Predict the structure.
Amino acid sequence: MLKHNTYFDGGVQSIGFERNGLRATVGVIAPGEFHFNTGAAERMSVISGQLSVKLAVNSEWQTFAAGTYFEVAANSGFDVRAVGGAVAYLCEFLG
């Protein structure tokens, strides 16, 4: 079953799905800065574009290009901003 998700007045949209018992979403982040909270641990893979990420409140921004990924701990949060245009991503829930 596919589930369409829309966040931040359409600034982030995704399609949720399940494969082999694991949840995932694939989506697009429009230019802008957004904050996400996590329940489960996540692996965010950048499919297209560049995504700047701030993994903790006092951390520095890091940029991830297409073909790279970062992981986020459960019960935490992170900030993202698309660099130079929209960014496509795959989010895999790890637990």
Notes: The mean pLDDT is 94.
